[in-house]
Design a protein that fits this description.
By secondary structure, the chain is α+β, with helices and mostly antiparallel strands. 22% of the residues lie in helices and 43% in strands. Strand 3 and strand 4 form a beta hairpin.
Length: 194
């Protein structure tokens, strides 16, 4: 009885030994060259008037984005701690009397606003932004386009870019490709201590 089970096990082990190098070789050759990217990682729909300005801030371990609207009466507060899953916290007037305001300074969950709304009532100029892919320098291509953009903001510490257009607020993130030679050197150091 035991002999019957040994033969299939030996055959399976022999097949695994023969197939494993082919699978490993295919895996190594199928990886594309690493590329630097700017990708959309999050999106929030906003129903208020166009966004004209962004202010980003941090409160403890949470990151917030204030989006100021062109009317000067509304501000949208978004939790962007998890950039891929932004949470709309508030899309409301600055004050109960809905007077036009302008953000001067934000600090975590506090904001200093000014009631001089001469700049806040200006209709925002729109523009078109494009994410360009220059990985093939002789043949650059448009990876993504955003039309009707009214505001752009940045959080350089986290590599984030905020873009507002009629479709809402887009959260982009910059990613620099890892150098394969550095990754290999690190792996050799960790695995073989050399």
């Amino acid at each position: 009885m035991k002999l019957r089970y040994r033969q299939p096990i030996r055959m399976l082990l022999a097949a695994a030994v023969l197939v494993a190098p082919e699978v490993y070789a295919k895996d190594k050759t199928s990886k594309p060259d690493p590329k630097d990217t700017i990708e959309v990682v999050g999106h929030v729909s906003v129903s208020s008037s166009p966004v004209v300005r962004f202010e980003s801030t941090q409160h403890y371990s949470s990151y917030y984005l204030y989006a100021e609207h062109g009317s000067g009466a509304n501000v949208t507060l978004i939790d962007v701690t998890k950039a891929a899953h932004p949470v709309l916290l508030s899309d409301a007037p600055y004050t109960p009397d809905a007077k036009a305001q302008t953000l001067l300074v934000v600090a975590g969950t506090a904001a200093l606003v000014d009631s001089d709304n001469s700049a806040a009532s200006v209709t925002p100029k729109t523009q078109t932004l494009r994410i360009m892919d220059f990985s093939d320098a002789q043949h650059p291509k448009v990876a993504r386009e955003f039309a009707g953009v009214t505001a752009v903001g940045r959080d350089d510490s986290r590599g984030l870019v905020f873009v507002a257009n009629p479709d809402g607020i887009w959260i982009l993130q910059k990613h620099l490709a890892e150098d394969p030679a550095v990754v290999k050197a690190y792996d050799d150091y960790i695995l073989y201590n050399r």
